[in-house]
Amino acid sequence: MSEHGFFNMDCMVGMGQYPDKYFGLAIVDPPYGIGESGEKNHTRSNLIKAKDYKSYTGNDKEPPSKEYFHELFRVSKNQIIFGANHFISRIPYDSHCWIVWDKDNGANDFADCELAWTSFKTAVRKYRYRWHGMMQEHMDNKEYRIHPNQKPVALYEWLLDKYAKAGDTILDTHVGSASSLVACRNRGYEYVGFEINRYYFDLANKRLKEAEAQWNIFDYPEAIPESMKN
Domain named DNA methylase N-4/N-6: which ranges (predicted)? Predict the structure, then answer.
């Protein structure tokens, strides 16, 4: 296994191959253990049609084990853990700084916010970014959804801008849609990502390669056709 990159493997096996405190920051979104199968983005609203998704490994029936958190804290210096309010008893430390992602959902049955536990000793921070069904913050540049738990690239970019340090290698143990990895590339961070489900790994890898193709054009202006230049 190479030192950096995106891997189709169990994160527990993957983390076991890295030394203590190898990663400057882990940004993770593990299963919450709330019983969703992942096959639909459920809603009781008549205005929104639920989107079908292929069931993902684990089906969110169980939250991460204490062994998972032991490994996560072993290999990373700092951590941001989404959904920690669902399994806080399994995290061995208190947090001074929770992150609140306000999804600007309006009047519907979806959660207004998502919470993330952090290892940082700063004030609680709030990030507002619309992410509601077909409605997104930037409708002129919508992200195609490929995973039931997909989060916007902009959210990860904000986290990196605020909490990562120059030279950090970023860890994501449950990559899902690859939004985190796209954000790392956008911000110039090396990363290691794991996704155990082959179906979602292939989708995420395709998304990552498509994003990289766009980066290559902008990294090498001479590759842009004359018809696309101003």
Answer: 135-206
Helices (H), the chain: 11-15, 66-75, 153-163, 179-187, 198-219
Q: Residue 2: its pLDDT value, please?
A: 74
pLDDT of res. 213: 86
Instruction: Kindly tell me if the per-residue pLDDT of 65 is higher than 70.
Output: yes
Instruction: Please give the mean pLDDT across all residues of the chain.
Output: 82
pLDDT at 43 over 50: no
- Assigned domain for 187 exists: yes
CATH code for the domain in which residue 203 is found: 3.40.50
Question: How far is the C-alpha of 120 from the C-alpha of 97, rounded, in Å?
Answer: 6
Instruction: Residue 139: give the domain boundaries.
Output: 5-81+103-114+130-228
Distances (CA, A) of 28 to 106, 181, 194, 226: 26, 11, 10, 41
Domain assignment present for 121: no
> Could you tell me the two tokens for 22?
């190898």
pTM above threshold 0.85: no
Helices H / strands E in the chain, number of each: 5, 10
pLDDT at 223 over 70: no
Coil, strand or helix at 127: strand
Torsion angle (degrees, nearest 10) of CA 89, 93, 97, 101: -40
Domain count within the chain: 1
